[in-house]
Every structure is written in structure tokens, then in C-alpha cells.
Records
---
Amino acid sequence: MGCRGLLKLAMLGFFVVQASQLFVGAFGWRNGWPLCSYDMFALRVAPPHSTVSVVLTDDRGARQRVHPGNVLPLEFFRAMALVNRTYLSHADEATRERLARVALSELRRSWPAFDEVWAAARPEPGHNFVGIAFYVERQVLSKTGRGVRLRTEAERLLYSYTERRKQGEST
């Protein structure tokens, strides 16, 4: 067997092992290092599905519901993990307030979307966000079209923060 034959055999072996890892990951079994199943893309969520959402309130009272990835300049999955760790794990009040204040501050400077960092939520021109609330939503998992938001069955407030400003103070 020549060099090309060995290369073809090695490639075939690699793809067989990789395909087996995909199969293993689909059933929730453990990956075999150093090969992984990329199960991040094959996650099956069992109903009912709960997720955290953020409701932003601007200075005239208008509300906007967004994903945690739209309130922190981090990769969307890191933003979600940070919000979950802070508000679902019963972190202390000071930590919860600090994250809410940082999120509102970051939203003022805004940022564009890039790769896995989602664009900042934006209020109407001439206004600023002054309030932020974190909710856990229980969503109905039914067939939906691409880009269609899942229907929320129930929601529970986790934390709410509103900036307190002195009269006449500007942003």
C-alpha cells in the first residue's frame, strides 16, 4: 500500500470516527476526546422549554423584549450563561444590581453585530433605556417557521432594576 493508499485509509478512518461521535452525541452520550460530536448544533430540547429574556424600558416608558445577547457586548451564548448564572442561581443582590447597571451602561454606547456578538438593542432616537428586567419564560415548543418567535406560555420576573436620576440630570 502506497502513501496515497495510507492517506485515503487515514481519512476514511477519521470520517468513520467523526460520524460515530455525531451518532454518540445525538443520544446524549459522552464525546470521545479528541474528537467531538459538535452536539451544540444537535441539541434536542425537551418540552416545556424555559429561557431567560430581558425587557428594556426607555425614559418614556416604552418596553422592548430582547435576548440577553442584545444587552451585553459578549458572544450571545456567553451573555446568556452570565445572565443565567447571575439571576437563576440566586446571586447576591449587589451582583444582580451591578450586572443590570453594567448592561444599561453598555447599551448607551451601543455596538454593532460581529460574528457571534449580537447588535445592541436600541431605543427610539433621542431616548435612553432606564430600566431592565430579567424574566424566565416557559415557551411552547411547536413547529414554527424560521425566525418566528416561540409562543410564551408563562413568565416569571427574576429581577428588575430602574435607574434613579435626580431631577434635571441628563444622560
---
Amino acid sequence: MLGIRTGPGPSLFSNVRFNVEILAAEPIDLTEARDSAETDRVLDQAYPSDARLREVERRFNGRFRRHMTGAIDAAKGTADRLRAAEGARKTLEASRNAVEQVQAQGFAMNPRERAAFRAVHATLTSGMNLDASIARRLNGLFSHVVKTLSEDDFLPGDPATAKARHEALTGASGIRRTADGRTDL
């Protein structure tokens, strides 16, 4: 029984190990179309349909899923696959936390807007290789906005809320800082 050759693998144990690796590294969620349709149905019941937000959410969620599923599939061995799956889970958790922190700073979002924000945040913080020219342009745009944005841009309204919003977007509040000192919001 021990070490008996049983088929594709060199031994019974290698076949069992292979099956355990497959079961241990479940894909993030390969039912993107179904999930998207279910989410759309639920959100459209309470909030007006916004085709632009839905498209942003669909595209970024699709890219995130493909990137993370590819990372899991490319991993060698159970430990690497589990690390990749854990990385995906942590990225999604960080995106949920980012939404909560943004809302705490005075930015009100409905569930559709939160879902789109989470999708964009998760994709951009996932470690996915981005087109370098687009990344440079986005960084330049972000730098320009941070330089020209002022608290007055968030008025009329409560001055304290305007200040909190400004500090959240510019990173002055200290929340959500990356290793290079920039905000990840």
C-alpha cells in the first residue's frame, strides 16, 4: 500500500498531496458574471442605476480577480498558493477598511459607490503590474490635484468636515499612508 504506483502521480501519496493542494488553494471567486449580476440586482433595487459606476466596478473587479487568480495558479506548492490567497484576502480587507476610513472623514457613499471604490482600491494596491506610462500620468495628476486642492474646495458645509476631507485626500491626516509616505486613498 505504501508507495504503490496508482496512476498519474509517482505514488499514492503524491496523488493525495496533489489533491490536498488543489483543495487548499480555492480560487478567489470564479463566478464573476453571476456575482456581478446579483450585486447589480440588489443595488439597483435601492439606488438608481449608474452605468459608469457599474462599468468601473466590473472592470476593476475583473482585473483584480484575474490578477489574483493568476498569482494563485502560478504559485508552486501549497504554501505559496495559501500565501497568494491570503494576500488577496488582505488586499480586499484593506480596501474595505479604506472605504470605512474615507466615510469617517466625511465622504458619504451609497453601496454602489462603495463597491466601485473598493474595486479600484483593491486593484491598484494589489501589486499588479501597471502600464508605466499610465502610472506616471496618474501620479502626475495626483500630485497636481494635491498641490492645487484646498479646504475651500469642500465648502459650503461644515468647516471641520471640509478640513477632514482635505486632509484625507492629501494624506495630511496620517491615515492610510504607504511606505513612500503617500496616501493610498
---
Amino acid sequence: MADQLTPKILDYLHEEMPHDMYALDFEKQDKGILLQILLKDNSIEALKTQELSIKVAFGKYFKSSFQRVEVTLVNDTLKVKKSFEYPKENEHFDRCLHSLKVSVLGLEEIKDSYKKLEFLYMFDTEKRDELFKIFETLNVDIYAQRDYIRTIMYDVFDLNKRDLILFLRSKLYIRYFKRSNQAQSSGAERRYEGRSADELELLFKEMFPDGIWEDIEKSLPEFLKDQLNFQRISNENFIKNFVPAFMSMVEIILLEYIRDQDRDQIQGLTGYVLRIYFDKILTYTAENLLKHILLRDKNPDKFVK
């Protein structure tokens, strides 16, 4: 026999409930109406035998907003219980995280408006700050806030481990991993996405006659705290991630300057610029690590051991 209850409940939830509803607000929003509708065609006893269909419907509905729920029929009332994302935290904290998910889902719906390159999205300062504003009533430091945002964005945008989320230059970036199209090339062509070093040198000198180290140096403090923070990162993760992370940082800086007609060269130019300044970037990074060690921070000390 076909399950008619699940689609009926789903129709009601989609049509009558706020799309961004926090699961524990269901009873307040519903006011018992759904159960009254279901009782027109079923007795309470009959509904109890179809409780699995009710659970499936609610599970599907709240899954779209990344909420996990359990629904039961208790004393002629539909009771919704929500699994907290972080069980040790309270309901207020969980509600804030839900608001964050709703905001990130909104960004995902309009992401094409913020597409800068085939593999790069840039959300402006206003959009970034809207996410941080959600944490105003929570005692959470800025780096933990960024971690929560990252975790949710990885889920909502269906990112994989090689994709990056960066907080840089007052903006928020999603940088999808892009495999090189130059697997059959060799030498400099492979390094620079098929562009010759001479071609990229001309473009670089035309765009930055005085170089671009000043911009890179200004970005490094924030970047290191966010992406390669020695107070938090392991030696293994640093080795695995530092090259693609620095590549993304340079790419974002170049994006602010490169002309529209030259955007197809940005990956090659990024590789070229990183090669020029790689030693300086590593020296700056090593000095940053040394400062943490001199301050007797535990993680950096473990990092070098």
C-alpha cells in the first residue's frame, strides 16, 4: 500500500511553515493544525501505527535546513525533538548556529552573483559581516566564529577537503580546487598553466612596475592567523596545505588588480608571482612561528618538534 501520509505532511510543512523555521518552534507555529488535518482521515490509533511515515516526513523537511529531528505522537500531540549540533551547548547557542545555516543557505542560492572566476567566489564585506553579526550574543572568539562558519559552508556548498574558505582583505572567499589543465605540459609551462614565463613577466611588470610585495606583506598577518595559525595547526597539515593556501592568497590579491581581458591568465600569473616572492613569504612565516615559540605558546613549540 502506497504511503500517502508522508507526502501529505510534507505538503503541509512546505506550504504552511516558515522555510527557515527552527525545529523546536514547530508546535508554536503549527498550533496543532497538522494533527487536526491528519485526524480527518485517520484515528489516533491508526496514526500511531504510521508513526514511521510521520518521522520520515519531518526528517526530510528539516534535512533541507541541515537539522536532525525526532518526532513522536505523545498525548495526542506531535512532539519534535531536535539534535543539537554541539550537544554540550545550550538552545540559544544552537539557535544562533541555525540562523547561521539559514544565512549561508541564502548565500548559496545567490552565489552566482558573487562569482569572480570559474573556481572562485567572493562575498563582500557586508555579506561577511552579516555572518559574524549572528555571534554577537555568544561568547565566542573570532577564530572560533570563523571555524563555525567554515564548517557550515563546507556542508551547504558541498565542498571537499581541497577546497578553501578564506577570510581575507575584509571579504569572504570560496576557492574551489581546480586541477591543472596542463598535465601534458612540462617545465615552466606546467608551473604557469601553459603560459610562458616571458609572457607572464611582461604582464607582471606592466601591472606592477614596483612589484607587489607590499600588498602580500600587508595580507600575511591576517592570512597566517586564519589559514596557517601556528597556535592551532599541526606540522602535518601545514606541510599539506601551505602551498595551495599561499597560492590562493596571491590569487585573491591579484584579482583586485587584474584587468578583465587578462583574467584567463590569473592562474599562470599567480604561480609566477608566488615563485618570485616564495622565499620572502616563507621567511615572514618562519619569523611568525619564531615569535610564537618565544612567547612559549605550546602548539608552535610542538610544531617544530
